[in-house]
Design goal:
76% of the residues lie in helices and 0% in strands. With 181 residues, it is mostly helical. Keywords: DNA-binding, Transcription, Transcription regulation.
């Protein structure tokens, strides 16, 4: 008789594997069965840990969104003055956000869900609020909101455009938004 396998990290592994699969095949291409197989867990573990696919997706995308806003927080908390805060924003745009193809796909899969489903919109709104709060360490709320939109737009251009914006262009855009008029 075999005993129950001790696997205290199983739930976390399932969430991580779910994110990897979403990055590989998209939300439409995953299922409980596929996630269980990729995570090397019995199918019954899926229903033990998650009430359904929607709960797994919300947990996975919640983890992903928190990691993204944690990155904003790390960059912005390291800044000590206006110049270093501007440099941090440039680094967020040119290095951090969509730093990998996986991040690009996961972000856009989340955006697609959020455009249709209010529960996912709550995740994206919380992500944006945390990111803006990090920006507000150095910039007023209106400027932080403009910077957040700039970050979003320029990172999409950087990831998808055949000619990504040059670092000098990003630096100039950040300077213009953060210089009192």
């Amino acid at each position: 008789m075999t005993g129950r396998r001790h696997d205290p990290d199983r739930r976390d592994r399932i969430i991580d594997v779910c994110l990897d699969l979403i990055a590989e095949v998209g939300v439409a291409g995953i299922s409980h069965r596929k996630v269980a197989a990729a995570a090397d867990v019995p199918l019954g573990s899926m229903t033990y840990h998650f009430a359904g696919m929607d709960e797994l997706l919300r947990e996975a995308f919640g983890r992903f969104a928190r990691a993204g806003s944690d990155g904003f927080e790390r960059r912005m908390s390291a800044a000590t003055d206006l110049d270093s805060a501007r440099a941090a924003v440039v680094a967020i745009i040119t290095e951090d956000v969509f730093g990998t193809q996986r991040d690009l796909v996961l972000t856009h899969e989340l955006y697609t869900l959020a455009s249709r489903e209010p529960a996912y919109r709550e995740l994206t709104n919380a992500w944006m609020a945390r990111s803006r709060a990090a920006l507000e360490r150095h910039f007023d709320p209106v400027t932080a909101r403009m910077l957040d939109a700039l970050i979003e737009g320029l990172t999409i251009h950087r990831a998808l455009d055949t000619e990504a914006p040059k670092a000098e262009t990003v630096t100039e855009a950040v300077r213009r938004i953060t210089t009192p008029g």
